[in-house]
Amino acid sequence: MGFDVLKKTMGIERKINDFLDQVSEAGMLFGEGVEFYLNGRMDVFAQKLDAISEKEHQGDILRKTIDHELYTRTLIPESRGDVLRLMEDMDSLLDRFKGAMWRFEIERVDICADLHDDFLGLVSCVCKSVEAMISSSRAFFNDIEAVSDHMHKVSFWETESDKASTRLQRAIFSKKDIELSHRLQLRDFAVHIDRIADRAEDAADNLGIYVIKRSL
Amino acid sequence: MTVFFLMSGVFLGWSLGANDAANVFGTAVGTRMLRFRVAAVYCSIFIILGAMVSGGGAAHTLGKLGAINAIGGAFVVAMSAGISVYLMTLLHNPVSTSQAIVGAIIGWNLFSGNPTDYTSLTRIVITWVACPILSGIIAVILYVFITFMIRHTRINMFQQDSLTRSGLILAGIFGSYALGANNIANVMGVFIPVAPFPDVMLFGCIRFSSTQQLFFVGGIAIAAGVITYSRRVMMTVGRGIFELTPVAAFVVVTAQGLVLFIFASQRLSDLLVSHGLPAIPLVPVSSSQAIVGAVMGIAFLKGIRAIQWKTIGRIAAGWAVTPLIAAVICFVSLFFMQNVFEVQTYKPVACIQDTQGSGVHGSDVQGSGVHSSEVHGSEVHCSEVQGFNDQGLDSCAGRD
Predict the structure, then answer these.
(1) Predicted local confidence at residue B327, as pLDDT
(2) pLDDT tens for residues A41-66?
(3) Nearest Cα residue in chain A from B167
(4) B95-107 residue pLDDT tens
(5) How far apart are CA B133 and CA B110, in angstroms?
(6) Are A12 and B34 a contacting pair at CB < 8 A?
(7) Percent of chain B with pLDDT strictly greater than 90
């Protein structure tokens, strides 16, 4: 029986790690996908889009399995609710990466070359904030004392994302050679991407509360 | 008729199971580390095993267990204790079965005219206060140590969960085994001399003695109490006083075990004495009181604002009135038993001066079950009386 419990424990640990891997890889795919989009390599962009959709699908399956196992095997009863909410938060980040990629695919927005660096800078900050959130989540399971070491980075990169987004929006609206509708569309893209970092920061705030609850 | 008298033991067993399972699995179920059904199955199996395998140890003292020297009296004492425990179980209160038995025995003493040794009684009552306090202190020390270790070993959340769960299950299993082994004498001991079962050979090689069959019936009765009625007391212990974490739940069960061990271990006491330290007073302590004390210790450590004072008050009141209720029920029932149903509830036995010297043999002296009284330097032995009383008062360290 003891062995059985240990096996179950190792199984759920592995699944949570796999799930966080999916989120992390989705972030990397998103970064690469935007870069290929900006370079006009739509065939590779389509591959990245397929890959990120697959990650999202795998993430959903893993999250449902984790939910199911946590409840049916009555694991970590005192932290179960917090862990499930954390998984939901991370899943929503994965969804947002996929949503942003699909938005590029559907709207095929024309991004002026002089805005490319700003867009890439914004995407980089967003991906780093999500990556810091993933590290915080792993620490929550493995070494609760180390969570704060990662969590402050989420806030840092979220702030950097806000700055990059503001810079980009200024650049967009300072361009007089494009239509207002085009500018509004570009602004929406910038805001949409920046919201991923905002969501990561919200998840980090929630995680901070879970850490306090576990420390009590 | 004997089978009818046995029913009071079965009822006491059922009440004990309904109430005392909370001491071994209450915190595990209350913290949702273990489902009630699983806990009840583990608890029942190991209670029956404990009663069958190690209950025999208690049988060695069962010569004394005839103490209440008439089967009618034993019936009433067991029934009164059972009713008192049942009443407390109805209120979801964890209560000490030893307390109920002590109360019932005092009721029998009052009725039969046997004197009660107030020195020993006072000593026992003091432990009812000291035991929860000591248990609380041990729980606090253990909790601080374990949380320090968890913080510094950087253990994974799921591994910690797995270890805590295994610890709770193991502690529960050992606790259940001990509960069956120790309390079966309280439940069925008085019926050993009148056990109606013949010895049986199982598979031609395993002898299933009359006493074992009796203990098996008692074990089944305790298990039935666990399965049918223990859930609410478990929730009181596990969640009603203070919302425990699984680690705290494990600490509470361990602290309880340590307290019972400390007060019951002759070897530990001898070891201390051999090193020039004071001996441990080996007195009966209640696992119910130890577990509630440990929960309160953790609650005080983590912030008194979260303590359910109403529940604490209810439990403390239950502890205070349980012996009284048992004594009153026993006294009144004995009256009816003797005067209405005309069943003999005690036999007056005269003391006989030992012609060989200082010893005095007889049993009318010690009705309270408190032995080792010395009468002007002369040792007093009781030929018939002491059994049930001794079991209830002096030999039930670690029981409840």
Answers:
(1) 92
(2) 999 999 999 999 999 999 999 999 99
(3) A2
(4) 888 788 888 888 8
(5) 31
(6) no
(7) 16
Is B156 in Cβ contact with A79 (below 8 Å)? no
The pair of structure tokens assigned to A58 is 């795998």
Token pair listed for A186 = 């570009």
The secondary element (H helix, E strand) that includes residue B254 is helix B246-264
> Could you report the predicted ipTM of this complex, rounded to two decimals?
0.81
Q: How far apart are CA A174 and CA A90, in angstroms?
A: 35
Record: contact B31-A78, CB cut-off 8 A: yes
- Are A22 and A62 in contact, with CB atoms under 8 Å apart? yes
Three-state SS letters, chain A: CHHHHHHHHHHHHHHHHHHHHHHHHHHHHHHHHHHHHHCCCHHHHHHHHHHHHHHHHHHHHHHHHHHHHHHHCCCCCCCHHHHHHHHHHHHHHHHHHHHHHHHHHHHCCCCCHHHHHHHHHHHHHHHHHHHHHHHHHHHHHHCHHHHHHHHHHHHHHHHHHHHHHHHHHHHHHHCCCCCHHHHHHHHHHHHHHHHHHHHHHHHHHHHHHHHHHHHC
- Chain A nearest C-alpha distance from B166 (Å): 6
Is A76's CB within 8 Å of B151's CB? no
Query: For residues A121-133, b (16+ Cβ closer than 10 Å) or e, as one string?
Result: bbbbbbbbbbbbb
- DSSP letter string, B132-192: HHHHHHHHHHHHHHHHHHHHHHT--HHHHHHHHHHHHHHHHHHHHHHHHHHHHHHHHGGGG
List chain B residues with CB under 8 Å of A8: 162
Alpha-carbon gap, residue A8 to B391, rounded angstroms: 45
Instruction: Spell out the residues 6+ positions from residue B73 whose beta carbon is closer than 8 angstroms to its own.
Output: B108, B112, B334, B344, B345, B346
Point out which residues pair with B399 in neighbouring strands.
B286
Going by C-alpha positions, the residue among B190, B189, B191, B195 that lies closest to residue B210 is: B195
Return the structure tokens found at B222: 């305790």
What is the dihedral angle through the alpha carbons of B115, B118, B120, B124, rounded to the nearest 10 degrees? Answer: 120
User: pTM of the predicted model, to two decimals?
Assistant: 0.75
Closest chain B C-alpha to A141 CA, distance in angstroms = 5
